[in-house]
Specification:
- The structure is a single chain.
- With 307 residues, the protein is an alpha+beta fold.
- The protein has two domains: 169 residues, Peroxisomal Thiolase, Chain A, domain 1 (3-Layer(aba) Sandwich); 131 residues, Peroxisomal Thiolase, Chain A, domain 1 (3-Layer(aba) Sandwich).
- The strands form three sheets. The protein has a nine-stranded mixed β-sheet, sandwiched between helices. Strands 2-3 form a two-stranded antiparallel ribbon.
- Strand 12 and strand 13 form a beta hairpin.
- Helix 1 packs across helix 2.
- It is globular, with a radius of gyration of 18 Å.
Length: 307
């Protein structure tokens, strides 16, 4: 499956981690420990007036209007949280955009938490492979600014930010290829964000093994391959590198401190600047609440597309 284009967007506004934890009832000692341990100081915050629709429109405006392949277009919106979303993308308004003149369907994928993008990638593979679409657009992102500030805090785990990614995919050979894609559900964490302190503690303990299992499923080379991870927190990746022989220099997690955990957009937010500068040969990975995990190999040179 060929990645024809990747566009990402991180809102400029920020909320301090201390303010988020304080709004959730956290005290000064908790704030100090969290920021020191996890290295997360602020999160990116979406403009609720812009909303999901507005950020998608901005990303679409960066793409050439001419179709890459003939056939129908389908847009998959991967949400990060399994809950009713007030801002569902609508087919008819989207079809007015020059890039989406042949759009025939908009599908929401919202039951897999931060691993939702990998389920969307698998769905894109099936649609392209079956000839049901010539192009599939995969969009990641929600507007967490619709929530109270305190809802961004996941105690002993992370703080949630807003970020957006849009992928344009075809079945063409060459260029940047994504695949294989692997997904798996690890039982025992079904409560997700509402699972309580005991379940969260078990989830944090299991996190590194879930990562290891997911990477093994797509043949990740811990010494040579780049790793584009979800930014759950800085500590998680320091521990993973130490315990699983992962070359830390290959882990692209530099957005942790300044943007927060932008849920299922994270791997693509950290991939974007690298892809614009050099060929890539590595792995995208996310581990979501409720035990959902996904990973995908990615290799190639996006700069050749413009040559």
């Amino acid at each position: 499956m060929r990645l024809e284009a990747l566009e990402t967007l991180i809102p400029e506004a920020r909320a301090g981690t201390a303010d988020i934890i304080r709004s959730a009832g956290g005290k000064a000692e908790e704030i100090k420990l969290f920021t020191a341990l996890f290295g997360m100081h602020q999160v990116a915050v979406a403009d609720p007036d812009t909303g999901v629709d507005g950020y998608l429109q901005t990303l679409l405006s960066r793409l050439p209007a001419a179709p890459v392949c003939s056939g129908a277009q389908i847009l998959l919106h991967a949400h990060s949280l399994p809950m009713p979303h007030a801002r569902r993308l609508q087919l008819q308004p989207l079809r007015r955009h020059p890039v989406l003149r042949r759009l025939t369907a908009v599908c929401d994928i919202d039951q897999f938490n931060c691993a939702g993008m990998f389920h969307a990638l698998q769905m894109a593979q099936r649609l392209l492979g079956a000839g049901a679409a010539g192009e599939v657009f995969v969009f990641a992102g929600d507007c967490l600014s619709d929530w109270p500030l305190a809802a961004r805090y996941v105690p002993s785990c992370t703080v949630l930010g807003d970020g957006y990614a849009l992928l344009r995919l075809t079945a063409r050979d060459g260029g940047v290829q994504i695949g294989p894609v692997a997904t798996r559900h690890f039982p025992g964490f079904e409560g997700g964000l509402d699972g309580g302190a005991a379940q969260m503690e078990r989830y944090n303990r299991a996190h590194l093994e879930i990562i290891s299992d997911s990477l093994a499923r797509i043949g990740h080379d811990p010494q040579a391959a780049m790793l584009f991870p979800h930014n759950i927190n800085g500590l998680a990746w320091r521990l993973y590198c130490r315990q699983h022989n992962q070359n830390a220099a290959q882990v692209h997690d530099g957005l942790v401190a300044g943007t927060g955990h932008c849920c299922n957009a994270d791997p693509f937010l950290v991939l974007d600047p690298v892809l614009r500068e050099q060929p890539v040969n590595g792995t995208l990975i996310s581990v979501g609440m409720a035990g959902f995990a996904g990973a995908a190999a990615i290799r190639g040179d996006l700069r050749q597309h413009a040559a």
